[in-house]
Amino acid sequence: MTIKTKSLDVVITDRGGIVENRHLVHAAVVDSTGRLLFSVGDPTRMTLSRSAAKPIQALAILETGGCDQFNFDEADLALMCASHNSEERHVSRAREMLTKVNANEANLRCGGHTALSDIVNRAWIKSDYVPTAACSNCSGKHVGMLAGAKALGATTEDYHMPNHPIQKQVRHVFEELCYPDEKDVPWGLDGCNLPAPATSLRLLGKLYAMISASPDNVDKRFPNQNMTDQLRTRSLSRIFHAMARYPELVAGEGRFCTELMRAFQGNLIGKLGADGCYGIGIRESEQTRKLGADGGLGISVKIEDGNINILYAAVTEILEQLQIGTPKVRQALEHFHHPKICNTVGVVTGCVSHSIAVCPAL
C-alpha cells in the first residue's frame, strides 16, 4: 500500500478573509475487509477513540449476556453507545436501567458533570441543580458495565478498574476484532473513568465498517464463519439498529450525531469521540460499491487539535467528496459543513472553508 504525500489537509477558519486557524485533518475510509480505499492526511495515525469506542464496548457487554439477563431493550442499548445531552429522557432512562440491574447511582463510577447541551446547562443553573452520576453523558455505558459485571458473576464496586473481569472482557473483544491488523492495543483512561483503547484510524474505520456490514450479513452463512462469529454478527447488528433507530438517545437535540443519523434514515451510524475523533459506519449500497467497498464502509476522522466543531465540518466535507447520500440528505447537514462564525451580537465575522482532498489509497 502506498499512502499519498501532499500539502496538508486542513479546515480553515477566517475573520474578514484573514486566516485565523488551520486545523489539520486525518481520515481513513475503509471497507469491512479492512482495505483502505481513501485517506486524508495520515490514515495510520494512532488515535485514542474515546467515546467512538462505545459501540465495541457495548458489544463486549452484549457478549456477557448481561443485556438479555437484565431485559435491556433496544433503546437501552442505544444509551449504552451514547455521549448524551443529559436531557430528561437520557437521565431517566439511565435510572430505569439502574433499576433493572438492581443498582443505584452510588454504584456508578463516572460522576456528574456539566451537560453537553447549553440548554440543559442553563436549566440546571436556573434551578440550582447539581448533576449526579446518572447525568454523565456516559451513564448508559456505565450501567451497561454494571450489567456485564453481574452477568460475569463479578463484584461491581471496582468495575471501572482495568483488571476487573468486565474490563478484561472489553479488552479481549477489542483484541479479537483488531487482530491481526494490530496485535497490541494500547489503552488510556477516558474522561468518564473507564479504560479507552487507541488504534490507527485505518483500524477504527474497519471496526465501523464491520458494524455497518452486520445487518446485511446477519442471515448469511459464510464458509469460514463458526457459531461464535454468527452470534457476534447478530450482536453487531443489534448495535447498528439500536443507534440508527434511536439517534436522539445517542446524542440529543441539536447534536451532530443525532442529526447525521436522522438525515440518513437508518443507512448510517455515527459516533463522536472526545478531542476530535469520529467514527461512521455506512451500510452497503450502490454508492459504497462505486467507491470499491466490499460490504460496509467505515470512515474514521481525527482533528489534530481536537476541535469538535471543526470535526463536524470535516466529516461532512468527506461525505460530500465521497458523495455519500443524496444532495438533499447532505444539505440537511449544511450548518455543520459550513458553520457561520458570529460575534456576540450575531454579526457574521468569518467562515469555515475546506482544503481537504479525499484521495484514493494505492
Break the fold down into its secondary structure elements and pairings.
Blueprint lengths: L9 E6 L2 E14 L4 E5 L5 E3 L5 H9 L3 H4 L4 H7 L7 H13 L17 H9 L12 H13 L13 H14 L8 E3 L5 E6 H17 L9 H19 L1 H4 L5 H9 L3 E6 L3 E6 L3 H5 L6 E7 L4 H15 L4 H5 L2 H4 L3 E2 L5 E3 L1 E4 L3 E2 L2
Antiparallel strand pairs: 1-2, 1-12, 2-3, 2-9, 3-13, 4-6, 5-6, 7-8, 8-9, 10-11
| Uncertain stretches | none
- Report the biggest beta sheet as strand number plus sense, adding barrel if it closes: 8 strands, antiparallel
Q: What would the average pLDDT be, to the nearest integer?
A: 96
The percentage helix is 40-55%
Q: What is the number of domains?
A: 1
Q: What is the gyration radius calculated from CA atoms?
A: 20 Å
The SS-based structural class is alpha+beta
Would you report the number of β strands?
13
Count of separate DSSP helical elements: 15
**Cα shape:** globular
Distance between the terminal alpha carbons, to the nearest Å?
6 Å
What does this structure look like?
- It is globular and about 60 Å long.
- Helix 1 crosses helix 7 (165-178), helix 3 (74-80) crosses helix 6 and helix 4 runs parallel beside helix 6 (139-151).
- It has 15 helices and 13 strands.
- A hairpin with a 2-residue loop joins strand 1 (10-15) and strand 2.
- Strands 1, 2, 3, 7, 8, 9, 12 and 13 form an eight-stranded antiparallel sheet that branches.
- It has one domain (10-360).
- The protein is 41% helix and 19% strand.
- The chain has 362 residues and is α+β, with helices and mostly antiparallel strands.
